[in-house]
Amino acid sequence: MRKWLLLVSAILLEVSGTLALRAALDHAAWYAVVAVGYAGAFGALTFVLRAGLGLGVAYGIWAASGVALTAVLASALFGDPLTATMGLGIALVIGGVLCVELGSQAAHARAGVNGS
């Protein structure tokens, strides 16, 4: 459970840093949030990996969630476009990450059966 909370933290920090980067175009003070967000995201991701979540799974979920949340929030906060085609692309990215996760679980299950 801890590794998943850390992963959610990493995602939220990265998305915050990215949104702050957009906000910093208008107000330079937001660059402080950018630095804290990105440094915190990488720090949290490090703890996620130390907690035992596989790199491919952790990075895939982190990246896909970051893309989806950033696109939706940038649309809401900054008026960026969010089209049906973009929504399809986000769904495909999330589907790809789901395939990586399911493949990882299957590999661990096989290793447990073969390792006995």
Give an overview of the whole structure.
With 116 residues, this protein is mostly helical. It has helices at residues 2-23, 31-50, 55-78, 84-114. It is flat, with a radius of gyration of 17 Å. 24% of the residues are buried. The model has no long low-confidence stretch (mean pLDDT 92).
List keywords for this structure.
mainly alpha, about 0% strand, 4 helices, about 120 residues, about 85% helix
Q: How many E-type strands? A: 0
**Share in helix:** over 70%
Main sheet makeup: none
Oligomerization: single chain
Number of helices: 4
Secondary-structure-based class equals mainly alpha
Global shape:
flat
User: Overall pLDDT, averaged?
Assistant: 92
What is the distance, rounded to the nearest whole angstrom, between the alpha carbons of the first and last residues? Answer: 26 Å
Strand content: under 5%
- Ranges where pLDDT stays below 50 over 5 or more residues in a row are none
Helix and strand element order = HHHH
Gyration radius (Cα, Å) is: 17 Å
How are the secondary structure elements laid out?
Layout lengths: L1 H22 L7 H20 L4 H24 L5 H31 L2
Summarize the structure.
The protein has helices at 2-23, 31-50, 55-78, 84-114. By secondary structure, the chain is mainly α.
